[in-house]
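step: validate -> pass
step: tokenize input -> pass
step: predict -> running
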Amino acid sequence: MWPGVRSATLVGVSALLVSSLFAPGLAAPTSANQARNDVVTERTAEPTTSTVALGAYTPKLLHVAPGATDTSLTVVYQPIDPLTVASAPEAVINYELSFDRITWWPCAAPTEAEIVAGSAQCNLSDLRPLRTYAVYLRAVETQEISLGSVAATTISLVAGPLIGTTEVPASADPDKPAKLPAPRINVTASFNPASNSLGATERSLGVGTLPKVTFSREIPNKETVEKHLVVSAETDGVIRPVAGAWGWVSERSAVFRPKNYWPGNSIIRIVSDLDRVVLGKSGKNYFVGSKKLNTTFQFTTARKFVAKVDGKTKKMKVYIDGKKVKTFPVSLGKNEWETRNGTKVISSAKEPIKIYRSESLGLTDPEDQYELEAPWNTRLTPTGEFIHAAPWAYGRLGRYNGSHGCTNMYADDAEWIYKNSIPGDVVYYTNTGGDTVEPWNGPGGLWNIPWSKWLKKSALASNSNSVDTDTDAGTGSLETAKPASA
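step: predict -> pass
step: emit ->
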């Protein structure tokens, strides 16, 4: 059974069960054979065009939509005209659906009227509610090889995927009353896949990016919003739900944080059916989701880039898609200028050449004064932590710490990070002797809120619309924080 499908049922399908092909020895459904043969018999007098072998043909998926229940999808496809496909005598063309192109389930044979109309329907049921699926279609030609014995002879190319999400039908959704309350204000929303000062405009981002939805009004019913946003990741053509939680960072804005980083090389979708949803009331006015909130927010992740920096070993190890590809010696912040621990996320702020000056740290002792020019600077935090080349520090790389909080590297190594990292890539620090990165301190800050505390920012997880939207309480601010430098 495919994960996420309780019983992989198709409404109205034939009793013939298949895994990937029709099994020899199982009787083909008589009604399906007869329906297809009737079509061929009645239409043989029509002029024919050149035919194509079914194995070279791709059937057409037309539409995937939520079904009649919150555990079903309706799939619409275009049946093949039997006169346009080169088939063996008495052959029957059936259709199958899949979520992963490995396990297939049969549809009922299309009727003659559906073939003529060019549109047939297959209803998937017993799915998981509020789940996004990638649907594939193929045609399978079968032929009776002996009395009561059917075998697949040809399989078409695979069509898809088309994406569909199971939803509560509007008629059964208590958040979408048939008669909307009045007076009401329509609420819209904007989407930023690269929030928290990531500074990126790219749609392909590192796995540490944190997407944010911002509404046009303050939202009283936050739990209702979270229930109507479905987050999934499509990797290698297979869609899976993403374990994570929404955290409200203001009365209007919520950020989705996966429990772990996003999967790499994936399409991330946030399916919203907030249209016509009553989002609460302020004064005499009700807030209702506008039609535009029936939408899908989307971005993609690039390869999974995670660099791990260990202050004990003085090494940075870079992993791409789980495989270690580089090991670099580094030097971190010295005593009283320790580099912060925790997750940091690379932003779009990079500088090929940067001048570091002691005055930015407030150093006044003449012996502490410096002005250093460094190439290949990749910013991690607004408090001043960079990964950069440090030609003046080559003697201590991999041996001991001596910077004012930055990560010092050889020029070639710093250049590699500069040129091979993108906004959203993760750099994780341990054993530095420093404090943990503050939630407000850069695009990776929110990753450092303990998971149990993050869940308290979710109305759905805490079962309350009154959530703590202040992520920075007790953690200081950029103005009062200790800065970092070369």
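step: describe -> Confidence is low (pLDDT under 50) at residues 1-49.
step: cleanup -> pass
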